[in-house]
Automatic annotation (TrEMBL):
<feature type="domain" description="YaiO beta-barrel">
    <location>
        <begin position="197"/>
        <end position="368"/>
    </location>
</feature>
<protein>
    <submittedName>
        <fullName>Outer membrane protein, YaiO family</fullName>
    </submittedName>
</protein>
<dbReference type="InterPro" id="IPR011990">
    <property type="entry name" value="TPR-like_helical_dom_sf"/>
</dbReference>
<dbReference type="Pfam" id="PF19413">
    <property type="entry name" value="YaiO"/>
</dbReference>
<dbReference type="InterPro" id="IPR030887">
    <property type="entry name" value="Beta-barrel_YaiO"/>
</dbReference>
<feature type="signal peptide">
    <location>
        <begin position="1"/>
        <end position="25"/>
    </location>
</feature>
<keyword id="KW-0732">Signal</keyword>
Length: 438
C-alpha cells in the first residue's frame, strides 16, 4: 500500500510539473505578441518587427499578429512588402477593419494615392459607412487630384504627404487602447518633407504630315506656383510653321472654391497670326467622395476674322489605379453648328499621382486641334468644321527624389482636308516635357 501511495504521489507531482511546463511553453507566444504590440506603439518598431517575424512564421498565426507585422513593415518604409502582406490578409478576411485601414494608410505613406483610393472604395463595400475609411478615401481622392487636403489627420500638396495629427505620432506612440484596430486608427507618420510649391516645366513637340503640310514644331516654358488659394501657371508658347515664328502668352488658374469644388480659368493672348488674338476658358469641377468628378464650362476664341464659342463638360471616375475621363465639346446653335466632339482619357497610375501612363481617344469636330495651312492660307487653330479622329499615348515618371518628372507622348491624327471634303490626311506627333520641383 505504501508503494502504491508513493506511486500515486509521484504521478500527481509529475502531472503538476508537466502542466506547469506546458503553461510556460505556451506563455512566450502570448507574451511575445503582447510585448511586440506594446513595443510597436512605444515607437520601438525595429524590435517589435524582429519579434513578430518569428511569430508570423508559426503554422497558425493569429490575424492580429499578421496585421501588426504588416503594419511594422509599412512604418519601416517597406511599402511593397507590406502591400503583399495586407493583400494576403484581406483575401482571406474581407471584413477585418484594422487590416483595411492599415492597407489604405500604407499606400498613403507611399504616396500611391490612386491605389489608396481603390482600396478605400473596396473597403467600404465590405465595411459600410466606416468614418475612418471614408476619411482616408477623401484624403486619397485629394491626393489623386493633386489638391491640398486640410482635414484632421493628413495634409498633402501634389504628390507629397504631410501629416498633422492630434493623436500620437510614429516616433512616440502610446499603448493606451485595447485592440490593434483602435490603435491603428490613430497611428500616423511624422512630417518629414517640406512642401514643394514651385514647378518649372519645359515642353517641346513636333508634328509630321503625310502630304501637303510642312512639319510643325512647338515649345513652351511654364512656371507653376501653389498658393493657399489655388494654383497659378503662367506660360509662354512658341510655334514655328509655314516659315513663321509666333509667341503666345498663356495663364492658367486653379482657384479653390469650397470643399470638393475648384475651378479652372484660362486666358491667352498673341499678336501673331499663328495663334488666336484672345482665348478665354473656364470650368467648375466637383469631386464626389465616391471617386466621381464632374465639370462644366465653356471656351471663347477670338480670331482676326471670326469668334468661336463652345460649351464643354466632363465626367471623370477613379477606380483602383485607373482614372477615366470623358469630355465633350458642343458648339452653340448661334454658330449654326450643333456638332459634338469628344475625348476619352484612360489613365493608369503607377506608384503615385505623378507616375502614370494613359491613352487618349478623340472623335468628331474637335475645337482644340493644332493649326495647319492649306496652300497659302493659314487655317484657324480650332478647326471646328473639320472632322477628325485622333489617338495618343502618354507616359510620365519621376526621379527617385520626386524632384524631377519626365513625360513623353506620341499621337496619330486622321483629319479631313478643308478644301477637299471627304479627303483625309494623316499626321504623327511626339513631344517631351521636363519638370523640376522646388
Amino acid at each position: 500500500m505504501k508503494k502504491s501511495r508513493v506511486h500515486i504521489l509521484l504521478l500527481v507531482l509529475l502531472s503538476l510539473v508537466y502542466n506547469k511546463a506546458s503553461s510556460q511553453a505556451m506563455q512566450p507566444t502570448i507574451s511575445s505578441f503582447e510585448t511586440a504590440y506594446a513595443l510597436a506603439y512605444e515607437g520601438k518598431t525595429n524590435t517589435a518587427h524582429k519579434m513578430l517575424s518569428n511569430l508570423v512564421n508559426e503554422p497558425e498565426t493569429e490575424i492580429e499578429t499578421s496585421v501588426l507585422w504588416a503594419s511594422t513593415l509599412s512604418w519601416r518604409g517597406d511599402y511593397n512588402l507590406a502591400r503583399s502582406e495586407f493583400n494576403n490578409i484581406l483575401s482571406k478576411n474581407k471584413t477585418h477593419r484594422a487590416a483595411w485601414i492599415s492597407a489604405v494608410k500604407n499606400e498613403l505613406y507611399a504616396k500611391n494615392y490612386a491605389t489608396a483610393l481603390g482600396l478605400a472604395n473596396k473597403a467600404l463595400i465590405h465595411i459600410e459607412n466606416d468614418q475612418e475609411i471614408v476619411r482616408l478615401q477623401a484624403v486619397a481622392t485629394d491626393g489623386v487630384n493633386g489638391t491640398e487636403y486640410d482635414s484632421d489627420g493628413w495634409f498633402n500638396v501634389e504628390s507629397t504627404v504631410h501629416t498633422k495629427f492630434t493623436g500620437v505620432k510614429k516616433s512616440s506612440p502610446t499603448f493606451n487602447e485595447t485592440t490593434v484596430a483602435e490603435m491603428e486608427s490613430v497611428h500616423t507618420t511624422p512630417v518629414t518633407e517640406e512642401k514643394l510649391k514651385n514647378t518649372v516645366m519645359v515642353n517641346s513637340a513636333v508634328t509630321f504630315f503625310d502630304k501637303r503640310f510642312d512639319p510643325i514644331t512647338t515649345s513652351s516654358i511654364s512656371y507653376k506656383r501653389q498658393t493657399p488659394y489655388g494654383t497659378l501657371i503662367p506660360r509662354i508658347n512658341n510655334s514655328n510653321r509655314v516659315g513663321k515664328n509666333g509667341i503666345q502668352l498663356d495663364l492658367d488658374l486653379y482657384p479653390k472654391i469650397a470643399k470638393g469644388f475648384y475651378a479652372y480659368i484660362n486666358y491667352g493672348y498673341s499678336e501673331s497670326d499663328l495663334y488666336p488674338n484672345h482665348k478665354v476658358g473656364g470650368d467648375v469641377y466637383y469631386n464626389h467622395k465616391n471617386g466621381i468628378e464632374f465639370s462644366a464650362g465653356g471656351r471663347f476664341i477670338n480670331f482676326a476674322t471670326k469668334n468661336v464659342k463652345y460649351i464643354t463638360n466632363s465626367l471623370g471616375y477613379y477606380t483602383g489605379n485607373y482614372y477615366f475621363s470623358l469630355r465633350s465639346y458642343i458648339t452653340p446653335e448661334s454658330d449654326n453648328l450643333t456638332n459634338v466632339s469628344g475625348n476619352l482619357l484612360v489613365r493608369k497610375y503607377l506608384k503615385d499621382a505623378k507616375n502614370y501612363m494613359g491613352l487618349n481617344v478623340g472623335v468628331g469636330f474637335s475645337p482644340e486641334l493644332r493649326q495647319f495651312t492649306s496652300g497659302d492660307q493659314l487655317l484657324a487653330e480650332t478647326l471646328l468644321y473639320i472632322e477628325s479622329q485622333r489617338l495618343s499615348f502618354e507616359y510620365q515618371f519621376t526621379s527617385k527624389n520626386n524632384l524631377n518628372a519626365y513625360k513623353t507622348n506620341i499621337g496619330v491624327l486622321r483629319q479631313e482636308q478643308s478644301f477637299d471634303p471627304g479627303s483625309y490626311f494623316y499626321s504623327i506627333s511626339a513631344g517631351l516635357t521636363y519638370e523640376f520641383n522646388f
